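Weekly structure sync, notes
Attendees: PL (lead), two postdocs, one rotation student
Agenda item 3: pending single-chain targets
PL asked that the sequence for the first pending target be pasted directly into the notes so everyone works from the same version. It is reproduced below exactly as submitted, 279 residues in total.
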Amino acid sequence: MEQNETHIEVVDHFLTNEAFKIQKTWLPGLLQTRPTPSKNKIQQYYSADKYISHNSTSSGAFFFVYRFIRNINFWLKLRLLSKKELFNGILDFGSGDQYFKQQLQRRNFNVFGIDPLKPDFSKQVLDSVFNKTIDNKKFSCITAWHSLEHVHELENVIKRFYQILDDRGTVIVAVPNYRSFDANYYKSFWAAYDAPRHLWHFDKKSIKEIFSSHGFRFIKSKPLLFDAYYVSLLSEKYKKSKFRIFNSIMVGTLSNLKAFFTKEYSSNVFVFKKSKTNI
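Predicted structure, written out during the meeting:
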């Protein structure tokens, strides 16, 4: 597949039903949503009442499943953090409804948040990672839970991560994997394409490559097993399936079982360390 060749054509199942193409980029394994909405236009594709990471307090089966998985994932995420190594605090990039940030604060972690759609300066949630407020600040850890795929200036954001981390700083990134079984099964209905809100689509090689090219060293990766079930459930909803719960359990389970051998899980967490010298 050459650069700009289409990997798959999708529609915005979540909100507008507009058509988009997921296309190859300059980096093998990294795909981009095209046409790419501008920074000003992209906000219209986020519905405050419907977009679940910004409004997870509503009732309904999907919100219940989301909160259940979010609670389980929090404890998995917490295991990646060590208070002893976090002298300069954490920056939660893409804090959404602030659940992760608030849970850490209750455990006496020092946490700042970044969310361009829901900034709250009184609660240390800034509108941008480029905000001058943190120009001279150094963090011990930056977390990006399913948020890196939303940014326009991907490489500039990663460079900014490097700039505001201390010398032993860590970046923890979670992203969907379009090479997973559930992605191949649902094809254009795969909820994790989420075009055009997801501007970037990674495989395991490309996420490692782009961080290593900007001064980071890959440490380890772990699967987020429950994401396969939630993404499958949402994909079944987009397909208007009559047996969406049963089907999503079957597909999610099969995806995880296959990934045990292929290592291509629906979603993965990657841990990177800042190198002493930027590349």
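Discussion points:
- The helical segments are 39-42, 61-78, 99-106, 154-164, 181-186, 204-212, 227-238, 244-262.
- The CA atoms of residues 101 and 234 lie 25 Å apart.
Action: rotation student to compare against the earlier draft before next sync.
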